[in-house]
């Protein structure tokens, strides 16, 4: 599959075909999910109106993890097979994943203050998510920390692979340790533990945020591919002119 998509021209053609349907699905689910989550769903009997933060917090946390798995896979494909599109995909994913990890931490703090009485605690889930955010920042810094962008690709890919160790720690921290953070309430044995009136907007927001993630990554990849083509053409023109600009 990746070999098939590894051709930048083929990827651009598929991305063009996917973009409009994905945009429509994202817009519809986002609008309806926000309406249900903010206005139509009831407040929680314990958390009150604060429960509405989960409609942003939970999708953001899922995308932070999902994005990092994608980042790690891109790192693997780049190191093993030297796919240039894997490097482009990693550079496109990293800032978007970092944004969702940051959003997870911020919305978690906003929820934690009224529920736990503190903006932050060194809880296993919170701490491992903070580490995930730092891994994102490290990958971005390495990928862009060299005069020639390709020199940063390999160290960034290696760090992305190392950071994969943290992903299961984030996911299962609530099962492995006693934490303040509540255990999984959607993907759990016995089915979701959330009332359908809250589960429906949450699922819609999950679909919308996944669509948004895919749209932004596609747009960033297209921009990076175009920028590299322009740079290649500029180098060829410079070479044809005998190195004189």
TrEMBL record:
<keyword id="KW-1003">Cell membrane</keyword>
<keyword id="KW-0472">Membrane</keyword>
<dbReference type="GO" id="GO:0005886">
    <property type="term" value="C:plasma membrane"/>
</dbReference>
<dbReference type="GO" id="GO:0017004">
    <property type="term" value="P:cytochrome complex assembly"/>
</dbReference>
<keyword id="KW-1133">Transmembrane helix</keyword>
<feature type="transmembrane region" description="Helical">
    <location>
        <begin position="60"/>
        <end position="81"/>
    </location>
</feature>
<protein>
    <recommendedName>
        <fullName>Heme exporter protein C</fullName>
    </recommendedName>
</protein>
<feature type="transmembrane region" description="Helical">
    <location>
        <begin position="156"/>
        <end position="178"/>
    </location>
</feature>
<dbReference type="InterPro" id="IPR045062">
    <property type="entry name" value="Cyt_c_biogenesis_CcsA/CcmC"/>
</dbReference>
<feature type="transmembrane region" description="Helical">
    <location>
        <begin position="124"/>
        <end position="144"/>
    </location>
</feature>
<comment type="similarity">
    <text>Belongs to the CcmC/CycZ/HelC family.</text>
</comment>
<dbReference type="InterPro" id="IPR003557">
    <property type="entry name" value="Cyt_c_biogenesis_CcmC"/>
</dbReference>
<keyword id="KW-0456">Lyase</keyword>
<dbReference type="GO" id="GO:0016829">
    <property type="term" value="F:lyase activity"/>
</dbReference>
<keyword id="KW-0997">Cell inner membrane</keyword>
<feature type="transmembrane region" description="Helical">
    <location>
        <begin position="198"/>
        <end position="219"/>
    </location>
</feature>
<comment type="function">
    <text>Required for the export of heme to the periplasm for the biogenesis of c-type cytochromes.</text>
</comment>
<dbReference type="InterPro" id="IPR002541">
    <property type="entry name" value="Cyt_c_assembly"/>
</dbReference>
<keyword id="KW-0813">Transport</keyword>
<feature type="domain" description="Cytochrome c assembly protein">
    <location>
        <begin position="18"/>
        <end position="181"/>
    </location>
</feature>
<dbReference type="GO" id="GO:0020037">
    <property type="term" value="F:heme binding"/>
</dbReference>
<keyword id="KW-0812">Transmembrane</keyword>
<dbReference type="GO" id="GO:0015232">
    <property type="term" value="F:heme transmembrane transporter activity"/>
</dbReference>
<keyword id="KW-0201">Cytochrome c-type biogenesis</keyword>
<feature type="transmembrane region" description="Helical">
    <location>
        <begin position="93"/>
        <end position="112"/>
    </location>
</feature>
<dbReference type="Pfam" id="PF01578">
    <property type="entry name" value="Cytochrom_C_asm"/>
</dbReference>
<feature type="transmembrane region" description="Helical">
    <location>
        <begin position="21"/>
        <end position="40"/>
    </location>
</feature>
């Amino acid at each position: 599959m990746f070999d098939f998509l590894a051709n930048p021209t083929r990827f651009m053609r598929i991305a063009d075909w996917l973009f409009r349907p994905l945009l429509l699905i994202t817009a519809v689910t986002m609008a309806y999910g926000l309406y249900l989550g903010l206005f139509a769903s009831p407040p929680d009997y314990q958390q009150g109106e604060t429960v509405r933060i989960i409609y942003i917090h939970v999708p953001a946390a899922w995308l932070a993890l999902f994005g990092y798995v994608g980042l790690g896979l891109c790192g693997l494909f780049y190191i093993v097979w030297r796919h240039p599109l894997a490097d482009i995909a990693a550079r496109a994913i990293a800032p978007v994943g970092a944004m969702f990890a940051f959003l997870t931490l911020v919305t978690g703090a906003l929820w934690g203050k009224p529920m736990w009485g503190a903006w932050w605690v060194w809880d296993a889930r919170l701490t491992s998510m903070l580490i995930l955010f730092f891994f994102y920042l490290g990958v971005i810094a390495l990928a862009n920390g060299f005069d020639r962008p390709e020199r940063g690709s390999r160290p960034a890919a290696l760090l992305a692979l190392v950071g994969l160790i943290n992903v299961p720690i984030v996911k299962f921290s609530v099962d492995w340790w006693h934490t303040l953070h509540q255990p999984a309430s959607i993907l759990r044995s016995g089915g979701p533990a959330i009332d359908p009136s809250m589960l429906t907007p949450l699922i819609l927001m999950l679909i919308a945020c996944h669509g948004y993630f895919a749209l932004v990554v596609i747009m960033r990849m297209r921009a990076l591919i175009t920028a590299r083509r322009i740079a290649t053409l500029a180098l060829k023109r410079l070479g044809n002119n005998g190195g004189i600009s």
